[in-house]
Amino acid sequence: MEKLFRLLRDGLIIVLVTGVLLLAVELGLRWVYGAPGKVPPPQQIAYAFHPDYLIALKPGMEKRYIRSPQNGGDTIYWRTNAAGFRGKELLDDPELRVMVYGDSNIQGEFSTLDSSYAGKLEYYLRAALQREVEVINAGVIGFGPDQSLIRMTGEVARYRPDVVIFHVFADNDFGDLIRNRLFEIDSAGALVASPHPREADPVLTTGTASPFML
Q1: Least C-beta-crowded within 10 Å: which of 54, 65, 88, 138?
Q2: H-type helices in the chain, by residue range?
Q3: Contact present, 109 and 87 (Cβ < 8 Å)
Q4: What confidence tens digit (pLDDT) does each residue in 56-112 have?
Q5: pLDDT beyond 60 at 39
């Protein structure tokens, strides 16, 4: 009789422990993925159509980038300020302001802000000059030099940088000129704006962007 009692007691303990573990797993899954049948909201796209240079970062975004396992697998958290640049809010009147234009190498969502090109440049300039230096990260993923040029000419009067750095990535930037069709050569050999219509890429309006657009 005592042996039967011990078997029943041990069985009940096992059932209770198993039930608690299953409940904990269920609550954990619901916390991560939501309740059954509930589809988690899609992550908001960090980019929007721009009528002049086709695409721009949205202001006030908080995003994350997960590195591949080969690159460490860690998560990079990044944000845009109220002006639509990656990084902290702009200073009112820095002693020295630098603006850096370019593509993903400059935006650097795959790096922490301090490890990005703009972040490193600001750090070293401040240390070398002992002045209040602000480096504005004006990089946008996928930008070609044509887009950077249009954006730069529209922003320098507003932000009044002391120095402008114009980055060109030789691996694919020249192909961007053909893809974007923002400029062309006229009959006199001069560079002029193209009459080709500037339309929003469907991925910016359908919500089906690839992961790098998030």
Answers
A1: 88
A2: 2-33, 104-107, 117-129, 145-159, 173-180, 203-206
A3: no
A4: 999 999 998 898 888 888 899 999 999 999 999 999 999 999 999 999 999 999 999
A5: no
DSSP letter for 86, please. B
H-type alpha helices, 40-172: 104-107, 117-129, 145-159
pLDDT tens for 105-147 read 999 999 999 999 999 999 999 999 999 999 999 999 999 999 9
3-class DSSP assignment, residue 51: coil
**Residue 76: beta bridge partners?**
65
Nearest-angstrom CA–CA distance, 87 and 172: 25
165-146-118 Cα angle (round to 5): 25
Contact 80, 140 (CB under 8 A): no
Q: Cα separation of 88 and 81, whole Å?
A: 6
Which residues neighbour 48 within 8 Å (Cβ) at sequence distance 6 or greater?
55, 56, 57, 58, 204
pLDDT digits (tens, 9 = 90+) for 150-159: 999 999 999 9
Candidate ranges 36-40, 52-56, 65-69, 174-178; pick with highest mean pLDDT: 52-56
Distance CA 123, CA 11 (A): 64
Instruction: Produce one character per residue of 160-193: b if its CB has 16 or more CB atoms within 10 Å, e if not.
Output: ebeebbebebeeebeebeeebebeeeeeeeeeee
